[in-house]
Amino acid sequence: MTPTLTPDTILALAPDPGSAASARKLATPVKWQHLNHAGGLLWGECQGSGKDPYLTGVDPSGPVSRCSCPSRKFPCKHGLALMLLHAAHPGDFGTAAAPESLQTWLAGRQTRAEKTAGTPDPAGAAPTPAPDPAAQARRRAARERKVDSGLAALHVFLKDLVRDGLAHASARPYSDWDTQAARLVDAQAPGAARHVRRIPELLGDPAALLAHLGWLALLCEGWTHRAGLTPPELADLRAALGFPLDQAGLQAEPGVSGRWTVLGQSTTQEDHLTTRRTWLERAGHTALLLDFAAGGRPLPPGLPTGQSVQAELVFAPSATPQRAVLRGEATEYRPAEALPAGLSVDALLDRHATLLGRNPWLECAAYALGPVRLLPGEPWHAVDDAGHALPLGGSERAQLTLLAVSGGAPLTLYGEWTGHTFTPLSHLAPGHLTPGRVIPVRAEARP
After folding, report:
1. Chain segment 363-415, per-residue pLDDT in tens
2. Taking Cα atoms as reference points, which of 309, 431, 340, 439 lies closest to residue 10?
3. What DSSP character marks residue 441?
4. pTM of whole model > 0.85?
5. What is residue 286's three-state secondary structure?
6. How far from 297 is each of 3, 332, 382, CA to CA, in Å?
7. Which helix (H) or strand (E) holds 366?
């Protein structure tokens, strides 16, 4: 089924704000030649700076695009512009067949989708060799020995900090924190290293610093006593330390099929790694999809916020299951229908406390919050009907946009709560023909 894409959901697919801005400029018929929609494919030619126009195709069922331009971003500005054009000017599209190169690309996508859905491999295809359990066990034991050493050194480092007094922590050179983080990376505990690197930014807030050091101390203690943890609790501990998720093994586990609503996306940048979090909900169950891009490379195409999709998700082991991987591709896109009810501030905090009781290393979770009013300040706050408030994160531009959209009236937000700030990712607006609609909050990637 071809998805119904609005300008907001299309621009939410942009890999960065610059691509979104460029796409809006190109989304006018005068810049395109041979606009067509035929055979389940949007295609057209956009004149660039060179002699020959760029041939662009979009498979709306993805939605994914292919373009002859040299951009390494997916989707590129031409793919985004073509989708925006079709959303705004569908009558300008003809029905001519796409060039052979685009038809071959579309046929390849359909073939891969059929194989993923269970089409048997051709006769005589060589089976994928099974991994060697003994070799896996040796590699795992070797890594755990390294983690043992790294966390033991971290625990001594934390004790020294407390013994010297936290007031003296700001006098330490940055090399102290950087050296400790580098040792943890060498010990194959990158999750712990990431949190050690955060210590310098908390030196001006003693309460936040103490809480953060306590989190790291709990991580060390948890690893020391890991033999007493249940398998889901151990999975959460390993995830906090930065152990990679076995996605291949996870694909063999049972999944949860159904119609999932895409409620928000968040993109963060740390060093040379870009991370995108996509939040989905179905029948009160929250799922988190993670995508990564290293070395300045673009993120893969994501799911559009505000759409509901037919998909099968497989959840990673956890005492608070939310991390999931997509099995196959999402299909049957349509506008979001069943939206979650907003929580009061007290209800959100109670629900988050329950999750933390099961997984003390949980860094963030997503909730619908509302109705709330936005209160500008340093920082901004979201205030519910009882007068209880949560500090807001995100860019000032996103906060001002939400204030302008609300006009000062209450609204329901969907966003991430870290235990310190609530960052809106979208707002859930009431509609006339459907129960509501999801409007993404576009903002710059957070560092």
Report:
1. 999 999 999 999 999 999 999 999 999 999 988 888 998 999 888 899 999 99
2. 439
3. -
4. no
5. strand
6. 27, 29, 35
7. strand 365-375
